[in-house]
Amino acid sequence: MFNESPDFHSIGVTLGTLFPELDPVLPVHMLGLGFSSLVVETAGGVVFRIARNQHAASRHAKEARLLLRLKSVLPLRIPDPQWSAEPSDVFPFGLIGYHKLSGTPLHPAQLTPTSRTPIARILASFLRALHAFPTREARGLQLDGPAQFRAQLVLLRAEVLPALRPALTRQEYYTLVQWWDAFLCDPAMQQFPPVLQHGDLWYENILTDATSSVVTGVLDFENSAIGDPAQDFATLNYFGQPFVREVIELYQAAGGHLGTGVHYRVQKYWELRDFDGVQFAVRFNDTKEFADSLLKLRQGPILQL
User: Fold this and answer.
1) Rounded percentage of the chain residues whose pLDDT exceeds 70
2) Residue 233 is part of a domain; what is its CATH number?
3) What's the pLDDT band for 4 if we cut at 50, 70, 90?
4) How far apart, in Å, are the Cα atoms of 260 and each of 120, 188, 218, 225?
5) Which of 56, 133, 149, 213 is a Cys-bridge partner for 51, taking CB atoms 3.0 to 4.6 Å apart?
């Protein structure tokens, strides 16, 4: 797994050897370091997502197959993977690459009264098109479905609660146990129209033009699966609940079906989000990520109720 100080020169040299047609490659610089991938850009404007673990490698392969099908049916630009590499000494879990999309990530602070509704309308249109993709075809692409998601939730609880117990007060820990017990047996969370989800539609994965008023593309479909459409609205909470409500209203006005209790489900998925960081920290013994995720939990919607 790549640490937080990767050797970008060595990465660039290896990329140049693997893909000589990409010249120039050096210098290579980092675009991001997430739970599953190190993302770098070559001098020639090609982005490579380098898997940090085996789980990420398998998801990259599924993502590449999905993106090939989605690029003709979505109203926004998405990555078009054209390069890939099998595991090697430098890249133990392989990688995928694509030409960099134009635009910059939309930060919540950039959302203005003037740009808010146009951006909400574009995102609602994007989600309508994505969620309309045939689930039967998505299953054929070997994407996870609701049963796998349920199993992942059970595993998530089992991994994070024991690790959090010594780091929390007795009341904090009891609150989280109660939350998990209620969440896993909540019938409202089992009632939804299954769709193809993006899986991680937060602001870092939404690209806009220089004025931040026009969405130009969407990145990172690594977590795409078949499941509750409410999950794709939950991550928009970084922009605030009024924005989420506006996107949902525009989505439904365009004929999108989200099932009953969508706002409740959106809130529950929002509360769930910070446990992923704890799970990553536990699996890879990342003390810095554990401390950061613990702080987010303490400042988040569950423990702040």
Assistant:
1) 98
2) 3.90.1200.10
3) low
4) 21, 8, 27, 21
5) 56
Using CA atoms, how far residue 173 sits from 153, 169, 170, 177, 255, in Å, is 18, 6, 5, 6, 42
Distance CA 236, CA 239 (A): 6
Instruction: Pick the closest to residue 205 from 70, 55, 91, 34 (CA basis).
Output: 34
Same domain as 147, residue 28: no
DSSP character for 77? B
- At 33-52, the pLDDT tens digits run 887 899 999 999 999 999 99
- Three-state DSSP at 106 gives coil
45: phi then psi, degrees, rounded to nearest 5: 85, 25
User: Phi and psi for 23 in degrees, rounded to 5?
Assistant: -50, 130
For residue 171, CA distances in Å to 128, 160, 175 come to 41, 16, 6
Parent domain of 80: 8-99
269, 231 in Cβ contact below 8 A? yes
In a domain, 139, yes or no: yes
Domain count, the chain: 2
Nearest to 229 by CA among 161, 153, 146, 302: 146
CA diameter of the chain: 58
- Closest CA relative to residue 4, chosen from 26, 46, 25, 32: 32
Question: Is the pTM for the entire model greater than 0.85?
Answer: yes
Could you tell me if 244 and 117 are in contact, meaning their C-beta atoms sit under 8 angstroms apart?
no
Dump pLDDT digits (tens) for 252-277: 999 999 999 999 999 999 999 999 99
Give the CATH number, domain containing residue 74.
3.30.200.20
